[in-house]
Design a protein that fits this description.
- This protein is an alpha+beta fold and 248 residues long.
- 24% of the residues lie in helices and 31% in strands.
- It is built from 6 helices and 12 strands.
- A hairpin with an 8-residue loop joins strand 3 and strand 4.
- The protein is globular and about 55 Å long.
């Protein structure tokens, strides 16, 4: 049985309920038929059809798990689906949500463009003719990334070339009211030269032309990347846990 303090319908109602939290401003797609629930300090929502997780939540991790445990029991959320929850201890899922996998990461955002970086002017927008070289770079530099050519969540790709060779690339995965930088890759032979910083800064500056905040995600164990993003101004942070439910 699903027990909630309040059922919420529509993007505007959910944004208000979350206090226009930056993660909600990003996670709540414009034009989506979204339904949500508020209970015990958490606001959770089901984005509806489309790419991305089945469910999202901000606020109290314990309350968020309770909401989604009820949604699983009610047959609204199904085995094998992904939930993006507030950062939690995987042990807190025991007996409540059957998790096949839990990824720990941070949602980081900046309120102003990053400081200038050497080489940032080399960042260019890519097009369809770059797709083969982009795919080759990703396969070598970051084969496990979820951001790939053809992903419907991606608005644009940007990159840096060394001569005619693509050596760094990143995806503009903006949605809602927040610019979002994703899928950053640098060719192994070109790492340590500041290209990651240049690419992040160059992309973020372009996104700040359209958005008042720009965000990105980073795994909590990627200490080097976290140091870089801190230096570039991505200092606002909330812990996130992505939970993949066990298949039947």
């Amino acid at each position: 049985m699903l027990t909630t303090d309040q059922v919420l319908t529509g993007r505007a109602a959910l944004l208000e309920a979350t206090g226009h939290h930056p993660y909600a401003r990003h996670g709540l797609r414009r034009g989506s038929e979204v339904r949500g629930y508020r209970r015990g300090g958490a606001v959770a929502w089901l984005p509806g059809p489309g790419p991305g997780p089945t469910g999202n939540a901000v606020g109290s991790p314990d309350a968020a798990v309770t909401i989604f445990a009820d949604l699983v029991a009610a047959g609204v959320v199904h085995p094998g689906q992904w939930l993006h929850l507030p950062g939690l201890d995987p042990g807190s899922l025991a007996g409540r949500l059957a998790a096949a996998r839990v990824d720990q990461w941070e949602f980081r955002w900046a309120d102003a463009p990053p400081p200038d970086q050497t080489e940032q002017d080399r960042v260019v927008r890519l097009d369809e003719t770059d797709r083969p070289s982009l795919t080759e770079l990703i396969d070598v530099a970051f084969p496990t990334t979820t951001s790939r050519p053809g992903d419907p969540r991606i608005v644009d790709w940007y990159g840096i070339r060394d001569g005619d060779r693509l050596v760094a690339a990143g995806a503009d995965r903006s949605q809602g009211d927040i610019g979002f930088v994703a899928g950053l890759v640098v060719a192994p032979g070109h790492r340590g030269r500041g290209l990651g910083a240049a690419l992040t800064a160059g992309m973020a500056r372009r996104l700040f032309d359209r958005y008042d905040q720009v965000a990105l995600g980073v795994y909590t164990d990627n200490v080097g990347a976290i140091r870089l993003y801190e230096r570039l101004g991505f200092r606002h942070v909330v812990a996130r846990s992505s939970v993949r439910l066990v298949e039947d």
